[in-house]
Amino acid sequence: MTNKHFLWEISKNPVPYPYALSRMQDIAQKIRSQQAEERVWLLEHPPLYTAGTSAKPADLFNPHHYPTYDAGRGGQWTYHGPGQRIAYVMMDLQKSHGQVPARDLRAYVHALENWIIRTLAEFGLKGECREGRVGVWVIDPQSGQEEKIAAIGVRVSRWVSWHGIAINLHPDMADFDGIVPCGIREFGVTSFQKLGLPVTFAQLDAALAKNWTAVFGESPSAFTPLQDE
């Protein structure tokens, strides 16, 4: 199935994690059989922790007893919650997409990083990648410390991607203390709000859409609202 615009969907209410997993898996299977369009799904989750395939039990503290889930993606422990923009990307990687050649998973992850970095630049933030540390990092101007502002977690089934990125807009930063985020103890986590940037979801979503084409080649569709279960 081909489409002139890359489908963008948006959920206005927090999406339960099991439903998100089930929906992504179903869409990925349908993309492979050409029964569904590739898409970006923008959403928030209620407070929860997810374990990647490398997650260590000792890295979970969870003082508030939030639900925990096996995500099935790569990586370690990640927090999701209100105030964090999730963008799940379901893309046929057997085809080329802008900066991503066909069947090049490394290039796909680099493209996700580039997409985040371009988006952060819209708000005057210099996002950077670090060897051996997945995600996008910024320097806190007050402390001078590197802190993580966006996480990346990818799963690929029969060359169709699912999962995606998480950008910290204004989550409750104390909730990140319930885990060792991504297994990295030496560095902290930050957000737009913590950096003094009162950015709205609408502004962040617009920047994500604006920078999508430069990285992945296709134009985003108009945001399609979803009725969530």
Automatic annotation (TrEMBL):
CDD domains: LipB
Protein name per the record: Octanoyltransferase
Binding positions (substrate): R73, G74, G75, Q76, W77, T78, Y79, H80, A151, I152, G153, G164, I165, A166
Record: active site: C182
A Gene Ontology cellular-component term: cytoplasm
UniProt-listed Pfam families: LplA-B_cat
Function: Catalyzes the transfer of endogenously produced octanoic acid from octanoyl-acyl-carrier-protein onto the lipoyl domains of lipoate-dependent enzymes. Lipoyl-ACP can also act as a substrate although octanoyl-ACP is likely to be the physiological substrate.
